[in-house]
Amino acid sequence: MKKIAILLAAVMLFGIVASGCTTQQTATSELAVHVGSEPDIIDPALNSAVDGATLIVHAFEGLMTLDKDG
Question: What is the pLDDT of residues 2-37, one digit of tens each?
Fold first, then answer.
């Protein structure tokens, strides 16, 4: 019984290692973020809801940067 358990563990370990060894490259990357309800407005100046703020942060993230002073 102990030999079967060791063999099964070795096969499972090999399967985990082999599944991570892929050479196929994907052309695009996609990140899905679920924020709950659809926000009423996505204008940063007019928004006051949390669900809209989450979407705004993700949408405008590449457009803003912080300098050394914050």
Answer: 999 999 999 999 988 887 777 776 677 777 777 778
9-30 residues labelled b (16+ CB within 10 A) or e (exposed)? eeeeeeeeeeeeeeeeeeeeee
Structure tokens at 54: 């989450």
- CA 49 to CA 42: how far, in whole Å? 10
Helices marked H in the chain — which ranges? 2-19, 50-59
Global model pTM greater than 0.70:
no
Is the separation of the CB atoms in 47 and 59 below 8 Å? no
C-alpha R_g of the chain: 23
